Amino acid sequence: MMKGKYLLITLIFLIQSCSKQNKLFVLLKSEKTGIEFNNKITETDDFNILTDEYIFNGGGVALADFNRDGLPDLFFTGNMVSNELYLNKGHLKFENVTNSAKLNSTGFWSTGAAVVDINSDGWMDIYVSGAMNTNNRKNRLYVNQGLNKENIPVFEEQAEKFGIDDNGNTMGACFIDYDKDGDLDLYVLNNEQNETIPTNYRKKIIDGSAPSNDKFYKNNGDGTFSDITLDAGILFEGFGLSVTPVDINKDQWIDLYITNDYLTNDLLYVNQKNGTFKNEIQDYLSHQSKFSMGSDASDFNNDGYTDLISLDMLGESHERRKTTISKSFFFQNVLNKKWDYQDQHMRNMLFKNNGPNLPFSEIGQFSGVYQTDWSWSPLFADFDYDGNRDLFITNGFPRDITDMDFANYRLSYGAYTPVSTLLDSIPIVKIPNYAYKNNGNLTFEDVSKKWGLGISSFSNGAVFSDLDLDGDIDYVVNNINDKAFIFENILSQQENPPNYLQIELEGDKLNPDALGAKVVLRLSDNSIQFQEQQISRGYMSSADPVMYFGLGKLKDVVSVEILWPNGLLSKINNPDINKRLTFSQSEALAVNSLIFPFVEEQKLLPYKEVSSKYNINYFHNEKNVQDFFKQRLLPHKLSQNGPCIAVGDINSDGNEDFIVGSSSSFSPRVFIQSGDSKFASRDLFQKEQEKKYEVESMTLFDADQDGDLDLYLVSGGNEYDIGSEWYQDRLLINDGLGNFKNQQNRLPKMHVNGCIVRPADFDNDGDLDLFVGGHNKPGAYPLADNNFLLRNNNGFFEDVTDITIPSLDSFGILTDALWTDINGDKRNDIILVGEYSPVTILLNKEKGFEKLESETLKDTQGLWRAIEQVDIDQDGDLDYILGNLGKNNMLSLSPETPMYISTKDVDKNGSVDPLIFNSQQNSKGELDIYPIQFWDNLTQQSPMFRQEFNSYHSFSKANFEYYKEKGFIDNDSILIAKHSESKWIENLGEGNYKLNSLPDLLQLGPINDFLIFGAGNKRKVFVVGNDFGGAPFEGNTDALQGTILYLDENEDKKVVSAQDSGFNVFGDAREIKSVRLKNGKILILVAQNQNKLLAFEEF
Description:
Helix content is about 10%, strand content about 35%. The chain is mainly beta.
């Protein structure tokens, strides 16, 4: 018996020991640390979440060595409780010295804290922001007077003396040297609430007169500051929640990234180097978080460019999403354009910096960090010292007033319901903070539980620091209604811990932390790590000025280089590692020039955009058709698929010309090449009647075999009703001089929503026949419209689909097709790709086409958009490259977690109700299958869904099986998609294939087209894509830049991004073609929806 007990005790001990070893962090009890701070907030009938929405926005943490003993101390801001200062006594023990330090702030609602040596006396001071009480919210400046007899720093409040006792509803502040005069100026976040509902569209206030305009104070250099807000160009209203200083363009001048709550757009104030800022956010970020909270700036992918993150409040579970969001708001895009608001979407956003003169790519969904619920503070740091900066995010909210059932209850019964009853009916969002490990490939892994942070809380501001000087990075969090978290990092206790460096900067008297300095580590594997020195990071907090670099297993650092704020440089070669290095600005030297990553890298890029050089001046226009009013449940717009391009010698002069397609109400544009390789252009059509068609695809081919190129135009676009005459395709016959005439008698009647045309001689009779693909049935997505195989009979075309290729009837929505000889029998076979269908190969046999049966291809149902053929693996046969939706979206598609869409008309009103389902987390954190769409959108589509559920919570619990049991869907009405990644099909020979993923950089957005270019070991694939027709809630998919995939037979496949190639395509690129010039050069043409036609030339 005793032996059994002993074994049990031993087993428990071993399990606990293993558990601790597997975790990176241990939450320390307050009894050990001495930190008892608790930002306790108590509601009353007169003061609560219903009277003040910002009651639970929480407080921050400021970190500095306030008593100059070499240990980092902690200052916590409190709302209804006093701020508290804890001196670090070593070994993770702290002493509360608030009262002795004269920092008690009882009665003052503190929010953010910023550390600064305001009077250059060598002692760090604290600037505290105030909010809530209009009679007592002036910001406070606690000036450090030095140590008393007990060696405790004593502070004196002097904000008024310095002229920075701002009386706004302040959420935080930061100190920067914006004018490079050596001293630190002050930016103050103002979040003043007023009688205007902050979520209502209205004219923007951009003249500095808004009550919620931020403030900017210039340091006069004499112990005072002056309010120069308007003169400095701080003019845009906003409900500010964070400010992040960053040199966004590497010009050595500090810029400011501001995140704003509610409808107001975020701001990027770019320093104009003349004492003013200019909001240039639209030049850098294509969209933003909607309810933006905390933010951070860091080079998380070690490419030498500083990236950005902003936080929002999208829940991770299906229940959280569907109970806090009522609908995808279809008028949002219209109102944004009307009132000039940049697109905003409710999720965290990770903005990857693509380099000079290029917009950032927003990749939060691809990276896996976009849904962390009601989030506050993001902080990048390499917590596991593997060389990649990880991401920690705080979250939680004591009363979730965004709950839709509560909103309805309050609207119906709030006027005569006791306040206490109303408050008790509001859900609580108390969930663990998130820890994301950086995988080093632009993605992150959620390691919250694994690393020991899986503790439910209402967390706000946070900082990280090596609190116990053991070499690793600890983590500190300010909580509402709980004691502050002190997480000890136990990395250094591992048997063979990874290597690291800590860098401490000693600036000058005016800027002792050297804010604005830049540090680069050049490593022995030729990689770099780059950081900018700023301490205003995350949310309401002031970070550790010590900089932390993880090295993993690397033992050799080639050099450490510091570019100081005054332009001088420090450098040390082959430094010792696993220690803290201190650098002083006083020892820095002048340099004649700087290199990357301190400044932009000077590159000779192989491609350049040259449209103006060749007189190619075309901008695609399109009416804003509201597809979502026809079908409320669409995953994306169906009406903006163009423009297309057709290339050929139109006027028979021996030079290649081209035509660009058009949307309804506009004419295609013809570009004729002249002798000097430039182009003259004209409209193809003059009559308004001819412009009613939407041109979805075109081809130039010799239809009547008279030696010139005729033009086939596919009509489509989803604007018109099923069977409309405006869906009829057209064949224009060329007179040999480039003049076209529509000869409708040459085509059969085909009033379908077309999408592509692909010519080939399928019957080997010497002329070109046509495959014409149909897209969706208008108003009946995801049902597919008809496809056609047209046989050429002396220039007149006969529909032979039913007798030659009957298997087309079972194919889904077609998006692309490719003629190719699959089996080497000298007959043109065809490969089809589309939405909710597998990649399908139809072999051209004597008696018609037969489907190739393939175990690999039968499960390739995807959301395919494009196909092209190229020998990728250099084995002598043709492989096939496939464009798909990509991975930067919310779908998480895979064969194990597919997406389903219904073709059923639920209420039998003649309209398809396309319910879409995918795998999402349930309330237990387990995967189940739920509808993607929101309840209000379902009820807009059919009132049956309003009758089915009595609350948003009941709707949130209904899974895929529930909808089947209730008859809303059935097996016969379900289509499936298993792949969203873009792929390539490896041809193994003898009808065998293997499906491979394309590189990660090609998964950042939808791929719409490929261009195969060159031969031999100089082959390359140009890739273009994006989709600016996303559903309003999800928004545009716009992160894919113009990319080139190099296929060198002596090397692996290499992906070259726009910043390294000059092939910059960040718009909604739909088609890419090449045109040969008379001067011997080749232009790469890229057609973009509602944007300019691009032309690239190689240099």
